[in-house]
Amino acid sequence: MELTTIRGASLYIGALLGPGLLLLPGLAAAEAGPASVLAWVGLLLLSGLFAVVFAALGRSYPSAGGVTGYVTAGLGDRAGRAVGWMFLTGVVTGAPVVCLIGAAYVTALTGGGQVARASIAALLLLAVLALAAAGLRASSGAQLLLVGLLIVVVAVAVAGSAPSARAANWAPFAPHGWLAVGHAATTLMLSFVGWEAVAPLTSRFADPARQLPRVVAIALAVTSVLYLGLATATVGVLGHSADTLVPLAALLRVAAGPAGTAGAAVAAVVLTLGTTNAYLNGAAAMARALFRPRPADTTTCDAAGDGESRRSTLPLFGAIAATGLVLITLYGFGLVSPASLVSIPTTLFLVVYLGCMGAAARLLPGPARWAALPAAVAVLVMLGYCGWALAVPAAVAVAIAFRRKHPSEANSTHGGRCAQPLELRARSYR
Fold this sequence. Notes:
single chain, 430 residues, mainly alpha, Amino acid/polyamine transporter I
């Protein structure tokens, strides 16, 4: 089915927005104070460069299988497989973060400390794993409804709380120094992952050369308004209370009273279940592409293979449950902070984007190449702020370096449509 400009823009916006928007403004404000708004602005500019690069990659390599295929084409097979595994690991480690976001909004309504949040997050993770293991998939229409819900909630929170904004809340502007803006940008990067997931959709436009610029412009405009609106409201309205795990609930409480907190909790749980289900199905698809790649000319998933594929993903879901429950338990006992948990998938996705920008600089001509080069530099700068979390992608790279390639993987990186579904939006952890 061909994509119209509006439908395409909706899918792009859906890929860029996610539950991370419910948490990250508070974390960024805690790290950089009011100056965190500068991090949002800088990342919006960087997001525009990403849009140009991934749109060009999608047009030039429409069946490359997503980030793995792009990096393989530009930097070689080993680099492509490493990027694929880092993307998958980012999805796996991001799932408990999303569940903790939903749990924090529930406890903002019901009360309870870290142990209560961890318990609710564990239940959410197990529930969505059960749904994913049963083969339940959220349709693209359902995902767009979830994104529409998020847009409405953010709009109500920002507009409703605006009269309570105070100029005094912007001083001091950079209480933790200007370098803290870099730390905030690294944290916020999780809200700007998504362009890679929709790049393969470029082949579904009737006239990509005409439609894509409009689609990208609409997506950038909508996400910019939402991000900057929420960032400025978080600082201007909440002031010194902006460093909260539930900034959107706090804004809705100002806008609508106790009903705002309840609405935020319901929205957070719905977004958590819907988005995490999409993440896990995407992770399963990526794992199948890496473990059991199809030949290069495969373009469809046969029905007979679906049941076998589902059974083959059960060990993956078990590993996700074990990893997620360990991370959630560590949080419940106060051994890790939300910022530490966010830093793991963020660092992994930064490395993935660095690989894609490097591949694009070698593969693409003209404006796309010139967009890829400064984008790669910006990603490198943010990686410098990741600290200990860099050990995670380093471990993945070492594992890939010493892993013996199976003969059946000869054509793994150019799998057909099964290799990179739209649901593989990371975000979306978005």
